[in-house]
Amino acid sequence: LASIGADLEIASSLLKEGKLVAIPTETVYGLAGNALNEQAVLSIFSVKNRPSFDPLIVHTDSVEKLEGLITGFPEKAEALAREFWPGPLTLLLPKSARIPDLVTSGLDQVAVRIPDHPLTLHLLRKLDFPLAAPSANPFGYISPTNTSHVNEQLGDSIPYILDGGEAGIGIESTIIGFDDDQPVVYRLGGLALEAIESVVGKVVLMPHSTSNPKAPGMLKSHYAPRKPFFLKNRADMAKPTDDAVHYLLFDSFLEGPERGRQRLLSPTGNLNEAARNLFAYLRMLDKLPGDAIWAEQVPDSGLGRAINDRLRRAAALGE
Ligand code: TXA
Ligand code: MG
Questions:
Q1: Are 133 and 154 in contact (CB under 8 A)?
Q2: Which tens digits make up the pLDDT trace of 243-284?
Q3: Best of 172, 276, 309 for a ligand 1 pocket test (most atoms within 8 Å of beta carbon)
Q4: What separation in Å is there between the alpha carbon of 261 and the centre of ligand 2?
Q5: pTM here?
Q6: Å from CA of 222 to ligand 2 middle
Q7: Sheet bearing 174-179, strands edge to edge
Q8: Looking at CB atoms within 10 Å, which of 149, 154, 213, 237 has the fewest?
Q9: Cα–Cα distance for residue pair 75/115, rounded to 1 Å
């Protein structure tokens, strides 16, 4: 397994040698490597078992450091960056030749983000290169929100996990691109659309697709537990079943099924708390003995939209 610690010297020397380090962010843990080093980038794809057509997000600690890496910064992108960076927002910007094509899977836009985590910001400040970092999970599985999640799955393939505690937001960043001047949402995430729209006005949603070459990140089945996973309404969930089912619910228990099989994402009905618990609960239910996981959708506002998106994608597997 990997060593786990908060030693920035160890983390930065490994990264300077082209090795990979798992890093904490406020959204989920990332599997980081030097974004400008093709060998490091290739090892990210291979450790994750990620297809080469699914591009990586590049992380940095300041807008100044983006100079030379991008060739433009649309006005609305700049307004969003000013308001929400560091934070759970990724922007798609035109890339310069310094960003290897491997990082963007050959696309002419690069995804960039300044994460809001003190330890990782400190690490990035010590480096003179940006970090490419996808979520630190095997491709297609649930994203990690603490060091144990990372160590269980990738611990044998990486030397070090930088320990920044539990992820405070718990769901990946919101990805925004631009069609001329029009903001387009490529992935719902940890920054609510309401907040984005208060700065740049109406946004449009990019539809999910398994084949749309403009949106390689929008694979429909994703974030999936290994157990059969179904979305159901409460009336159907309450009906008796012969299967050993675990229930993932928003804020209140079902009358029929055994209490011990039911997990509430937020007993107080708080969508931020629900987002923080979502991936850890999915992993926990996936490990328990049982036949299936049944989940209900949460209210479709704030981070609820991103939660529902992840639940729908988890349920899409095997469709
Ligand atoms: O919160 C996050 O964004 C986390 C932390 C570690 O920063 N990272 C993360 O990375 O979720 P990953 O690789 O698991 O998801 C990145 C998504 C993928 O769906 C990918 O296809 C999309 O971003 N993406 C990356 N570069 C892109 C590009 N140039 N154009 C379109 N989509 C892109
Ligand atoms: Mg991911």
A1: no
A2: 999 999 999 999 999 999 999 999 999 999 999 999 999 999
A3: 172
A4: 28
A5: 0.96
A6: 8
A7: 3-5, 160-162, 21-23, 30-34, 131-132, 57-59, 109-113, 89-94, 174-179, 182-187, 204-205
A8: 213
A9: 21
